[in-house]
Amino acid sequence: MALTGRTALLAALGALVVGLLLPSWTGIGLVTGAVLIAVAVDLVLAAPVRGLRFGRSGDTTVRLGEPATVELTVTNPSGRLLRGLVRDAWAPSAWRPGTAETASRHTLALPGGERRRITTVLAPTRRGDHHAHRVTVRSLGPLGLAGRQGSHLVPWTVRALPPFASRKHLPSRLARLRELDGRTSVLTRGQGTEFDSLREYLPGDDVRSIDWRASARRHTVAVRTWRPERDRHILVVLDTGRTSAGRVGDAPRLDAALDAALLLTALATRAGDRVDLLAHDSRKRVTVAGSSAHEVLPAFTNAMAGLEPALHETDMRSLVATALKMAPQRSLIVLLTGLDAAPVEDGLLPLLPMLTKRHEVVLASVADPHLDVLAAGRGTLEAVYDAAAAEQTRADRRATAERLTRHGLTVLDAPPARIAPALADTYLALKAAGRL
User: Fold this and answer.
1) Contact at 8 Å (CB) between 341 and 400?
2) Binning pLDDT at 50, 70 and 90, where does residue 433 land?
3) What's the chain's Rg over C-alpha atoms?
4) Sign of CA pseudo-dihedral 425, 431, 433, 436
5) How far apart are CA 266 and CA 75, in angstroms?
6) What does 308-367 look like in DSSP terms, one character per residue?
7) Within its chain, how far is the Cα of 412 from the centroid?
8) Closest Cα to residue 17, out of 42, 36, 44?
9) pLDDT tens digits for range 221-269
10) Taking the CB of residue 191, how many other CB atoms lie within 10 A of it?
11) CA 77 to CA 364: how far, in whole Å?
């Protein structure tokens, strides 16, 4: 608690009285009194902290894993020099482990009537909003024996966005998209292709692409070429229920699903397609719909920042009903969920006809690469049991994937490092085949 000038003055007078009343024949009274008077004088001369004024500026968003810089402006309206320490406290998740004590503390020498900027560098360790707590100032006297202390609320929020580590795969997928979209025309016609141009027939071309009327006019065999249709609708559905909370390595499965969704969104918007987002567990968590091509990726990233797995089962019936409302026309629905047998068989399988009747459906699941390590284990009885359990788990996932494939879904089961590029490749393959 900060000391007022009146309190400090009373403390000084009390120290003087105590020093004079103590037995002087031992010498202790004078020494003690002098020390107490010095402490009291330090308290009196220390700059007050209650009247300090504060302001903030700096980063409000940052990608997870990158530093965020926040500046704290301190103004000293008093006439005294402020010597002391400032602690800019934030939530523990705003710092790397073990760095909060040193990174949040700053020394300050601020003359009266002036202002100073203090820079605090944050390093968030989890997605979401990180809020500033109290700013505590300890003002020391000239001798450094005593001082005043007070705390102030100076609000500020830094939002840690998903890191989007898979963006390194975007250039290679965009090159394949350019090849697909116009440079190398597609000769197979499907629901997601539109007429591009006519050219002369070459050996090996599909005879179904021959345009007989154009051939008659040209007096040569002409074939139609097709290109992927633009402005298709894609709905990315994130299952944020219990299965998304399972940790794979150092992060929950949901984090890898978010990364895959961002890469797909970046690629699809470059292809001219419209992309919407739905996050759902027992209820609808997040929806992003109708954003323009330039706004959709920032909107997705911002909406995903606060998503956390819910520790209960996903209501698949509600999820599917919401998805169908968001996709009334034929769309590509990408469902990022688990491949655990029980939730799929009891929740998703009975509802698949509602999805596949009109839409193309891709189910992407994050696999645990540690299962492969366990399945290869031998040498001890414990390792053999672990290998048997891991192999059984892998077999169950394969069987679940096969059942879903028989219902018309395209199923991906890949580890965190591969799920994002695998989903992007699947999107390009569907576009090339004319299934979008």
Assistant:
1) yes
2) confident
3) 33
4) positive
5) 45
6) ---SS---HHHHHHHHHHH--SS-EEEEE----HHHIIIIIGGGHHHHHTTSEEEEEEE-
7) 22
8) 36
9) 888 876 655 678 999 999 999 999 999 988 899 999 999 999 999 999 9
10) 12
11) 60
Instruction: Give the length of the chain.
Output: 436
Classify residue 187 by its DSSP letter: -
3-state secondary structure of 428: helix
List, as one string, the DSSP characters of 84-109.
EEEEEEE-GGGS-TT-HHHHTEEEEE
Between CA 410 and CA 433, with CA 324 as vertex, the angle to 5 degrees is: 35
Quick one: tokens of 167? 């963006």
* Buried-state track 196-211, b at ≥16 Cβ within 10 A, e below 16: eeeeebeeebeeebeb
Nearest to 240 by CA among 311, 321, 302: 311
Q: What is the pTM of this model?
A: 0.80
Q: Dig out the tokens for 122 from the structure.
A: 């944050």
CB within 8 Å of 245: residues ≥ 6 apart? 252, 253, 254, 309, 310, 311
- Nearest one of 300, 270, 297 to 288, comparing CA atoms: 300
